[in-house]
Amino acid sequence: MKNEDKILAFHDYVINNTKYDVDKKSTKSNTAYGALIDGYAVCGGYADAMALFLNRLNIPNYKVASNTHVWNALFLENAWIHLDLTWDDPVTENGKDTLLHKFYLIDTASLEKYNITDHEFDKTIYEELS
Q1: Whole-angstrom distance, CA of residue 74 vs CA of residue 46
Q2: What is the structure's pLDDT at 103?
Q3: Helix or strand (DSSP H, E) at 54
Q4: C-beta neighbour count of 75 within 10 angstroms
């Protein structure tokens, strides 16, 4: 499998097996443990789980933080791109599970087109993503 296929498989696995922890069901929802073991996570937990996986693949990555959110950045095919499992696993009004690929391996320009304040990050800190 190519790295992109492995990343997609893990992305989908985490989203299909994790719920956003709206009701604080896990005391570890801000960690990979919450996402991978408890099945409940907030953005930090989703990002931690993905970072563990990317590290195992030896793909350069780090977590990007805004004032309200955390997601992953990774270096793939000579470019830094974004990956946000939290926003690809939206909380729906009817509680139905949804799997998106809207924030899957996208560049900064594409991310900014969504005009979401949670994704406003300091480009002086994350220069690679500018």
Answers
A1: 15
A2: 98
A3: helix 43-56
A4: 14
